[in-house]
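Table S7 (text form). Paired inputs.
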Amino acid sequence: MAAKVSSSLSKSTPFSLTPSQTPLSFSPKPHPKPFSSSSSPPKTTSLSYTHKPLFTASAKTPISDFFAEDKKNPDSSFDEYFFDDDEKPREECGVVGIYGDSEASRLCYLALHALQHRGQEGAGIVAVKNDVLQSVTGVGLVSEVFSHSKLDQLPGDLAIGHVRYSTAGSSMLKNVQPFVAGYRFGSVGVAHNGNLVNYSSLRAKLEDNGSIFNTSSDTEVVLHLIAISKHRPFILRIVDACEQLEGAYSMVFVTNDKLVAVRDPHGFRPLVMGRRSNGAVVFASETCALDLIEATYEREVYPGEVVVVDKDGVQSLCLMSHPEPKQCIFEHIYFALPNSVVFGRSVYESRRAFGEILATEAPVDCDVVIAVPDSGVVAALGYAAKAGVAFQQGLIRSHYVGRTFIEPSQKIRDFGVKLKLSPVRAVLEGKRVVVVDDSIVRGTTSSKIVRLLKEAGAKEVHMRIASPPIIGSCYYGVDTPSSEELISNRMSVEEIREFIGSDSLAFLPFDSLTNMLQKEAPKFCYACFSGKYPVEPREIKVKRVGDFVDDGLNGSLGSIDGGWVQANVNPKDDEIKQDSVVKV
């Protein structure tokens, strides 16, 4: 009997198709190793790796015990206002897949909690039981979308999950993944992290041939390409589809009997593989998700690799010939959690090293080192240790500010920033302060933070940024402003310093960043720092989410209106800014 598609949604039902034919039985045989022995071990071998899980791989308490009984699921719809005071680039997605555990959906739920920082606006899980793909998706945080009763609707030992940072207002729910669809040989669910730079041309071609789209997500293109493939085995349909994709994609697929993980040939976005003590195989965007569900890290899914998990075990296929990896450097600067290991490197150690480099190359006489929490903390610790100056909490972050707020009728200056960041006068008053942040995007939030610190009594404020200046927009799965809006693309470092009002300003020098990475440096993507793209963006892309927001002020979701902007089709051959330090 073909796998059925069943969906239970928090707010509404997305497209679903019920197949009418028996799916083709396909049990892949072991394939020749698609990678050299130096880069890819056999399927029975784990990479040498020092990362340790947070817990041992045995638990006396079932996962079910972590969920309270009969608690009502709070309304997870978006409110009238949108709140964004961080003006940081936003990672758009996190994915997880689990095969071979009777509580797969609950483990997915916990893993998505660990990946919540990668997307806060929507979440979903698809589980498989008796050849039925059951789906629950909704708008909001993972804890808002799922309840004990919702997870009871997702039985089975095979599941995938997704968290999403949304890019539109009213169309948000139907774009929440995983997507589930049926085609003539079965049913398939997919969760995608990344962005396809040839999405528009692929969609236009498919529509010309009669395809009907239900969402504005590039992920739906992948489902259509799988459905029209001439290959019969599902795995070869995935390979056929992916060979037509350009850009960044780390995806997990689920059918009635298989879990499949795929990573694009450049390896832009992370995807790791682990295993629980009961043998269950886990895929996730970051190792922090493996830690929470007591899965031991085994290896990355390699760039250009397709990993298939079914009753016959784990099989690996080479998606296509792949160039040198171009992994996103911003995973180490901002996106990933410090306790994760991404692209084989500890995120914590990378950020601490960034701070140490800043202390060495941009020293300044100071009394205290503070961070812009939370993303600047580890770099600030590295700066303080290298400089021999005490690190203190000069800014306290409120973790209880939701997406909405009510401002008093009399305007409060820098209201959005003050809601989330509170200065500690006892730490700052009369002091020469170094404040470390991970990046500057538009610069407006940085100017408000500097003003906040000086109003709290800081004698001097010296800003240190643990990344090079950002001059290019990202087209590989990160929501960033257009290049024209990036302050480092419009101003010199001295002009930025004057704009934000700090006493000095220093960015992490690009050469020092690559020197720290040593032989791994060529494997990273630096397009946001150089404007040079490994895969040229040739089409338009939604980019203006949050642009109507002045770093914490509110605005109507309806005013977003898509925000389509033209890609930088002929990026100028910009020199990476080396004037990274300005002192006065």
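Next pair, protein 2 of 2.
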Amino acid sequence: MGSFISSSILLLFLLFPTIIQHAKPAMSLPLSTNSRWIVDEEGRRVKLACVNWVSHLEPVVAEGLSKQPMDMIAKRIVTMGFNCVRFTWPLFLITNDSLASLTVRQSFQRLGLLESIAGIQSNNPSIIDVSLIKAYQAVVSSLGKNDVMVILDNHLSKPGWCCSNFDGNGFFGDQYFNPDLWITGLTRMATLFNGVTNVVGMSLRNELRGPKQNVNDWYRYMQKGAEAVHSANPDVLVILSGLSYDSDLSFIQNRPVQLSFSGKLVFEVHWYGFSDGQAWVTGNPNQVCGRVAKDMMRRSGFLVDQGYPLFVSEYGVDQRGTNVNDNRYLNCFLGVVAELDLDWALWTLVGSYYLREGVIGLNEYYGVLNYNWCETRNSSFIERISALQSPFRGPGLSETKLHKVIFHPSTGLCVIRKSFLDPLRLGPCADSESWSYSSDKTLVVKGTYFCLQADESGTLAKLGIFCSDSNSKWEMIADSKMHLSSKLRNGKSICLDVDSSNAIVTNSCKCISKDNTCDPASQWFKLVDSTRSRSEEQSFLHFDSIFDLPGKGFLSNLMVGSI
């Protein structure tokens, strides 16, 4: 019997090597930092692909527990591809005795939310009569049982919706923001979750803002807060936000943070479409993307080059897909995040709120779950961000040599090719070909002589072996640096594009001028550095079935230099 089992295991290895080779290794906690990367205990890159779960509003209970059991919500998070939750909490939860002593039932009763009480009694009866902090712990525990990491985010002090410049929660010294009480709260929270393995980080404060904000007090108190958290819980990542609603960390460039510990510091930034008003609607998308992306690099993106992890802890869009400002912003955002391979947290998981700004049962259109928390609001959005839920590169991820993938932000897909007979098209980034981009602007499939070529406007892009002509040179153009442009032999400039069947074609470049009525999304691409190997073991360039190809067609194509 033993001999049979051994032989069976050996046969399994022989027959299914790719399954074993590409099995996703379990991460080893706690997390730390290695230059700009977040890594596990084995030194392997861990990409935070998080979703924000709100627990800082007036009830001080994780949203949605009246709609679904917390375990089902946790499982839904995993199903959608997220590995992490940024879990918000108000400071008074841990520092205000009268609030902290309330049970979940009492918290909802004082707000008159009787329907929510009935819902929690039905879906999560185990927490209805426990204290608010115990209910918070129960959610963290449920996420841990489902292998979901948690970042504890101190969102504000007084429970309620965030944020405004004059809500008393914005900056040190504001009405509800006593720095000493804040450090006490951070210390208590860090101590409470010391030893809770899936709590991997603490975000010290959300969106510092308001008329009192200044750089000197930022250093004074954020460094104190960081030291307090690390002293109470040395395992967690310490995550620092910037000024101006967490859009500005530019002051770090010339004045590094001074801490007694190392290997745990992460910076966070927020980036929404509405951060720039209605610029995405009123302006030319190429110009707006170029300007906004450049500004983001100046204010926070530079940290990556300085060797710090940068966590985009909030971004999001109206999930209904009807907000033009959001839609255009998202195309640019996903391109930048893919290119930099940043960690991130989507706003928000929430499908509806118990009570938000005086409205009971408010529908959250930025939420990935629907009103009843039972289904995704927009499944195509989840598919679109799925490629960014896995790292492209980083320590311990050198599955293959460094190469480029051609990423298409509008779809979340990459340029692939299945065989000699199939055209280049969009497909899962896990199946992308490996490209090299040379100094002479040639895109070549790595390990081959085949380069990307343009034929005529309105036709399929192709691969060829004669790569010295202008139609084999590709340059990133426009302010956005997202159009891949080439010149045909007749001197006409064209851009890589995608047709209705997701085939890769070339067309006249669009939206290059100041026109704000057009949308360049189909022509936006990013060349992304990657060390991922393909999920498919065999590239289309293997010749196993070459004799099955139509001989004349194959040979004639090869003779003219294109496949």
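The longest helix spans residues 285-305.
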